[in-house]
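Structure ticket #2291
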Amino acid sequence: MTALSRVLMGTILGAGALALSAGGASADIVCKGNICWHTQEVYEYPPDAHVIIHPDGWHWGRGEHYVWREHEGPGYWDGDEWVED
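Resolution: structure written out below.
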């Protein structure tokens, strides 16, 4: 095996390992009204929270107006207040 073959094989194996490890990463976009935030975990929101969970690639449509407010940990935005869940 030539040096070039070893480098190519290493690159292919490294890319495959990276692709497999990235498959486990998950994120969602959660919105309540026009306020949205990212979450890295799957949370059970109470029914009275009235949140909508979107996949990570979601974006709002033309003419819709949303704002981003990030926060760590379980909970949800209720107006300007973060409600711990």
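Closing remark: The longest strand covers residues 28-32.
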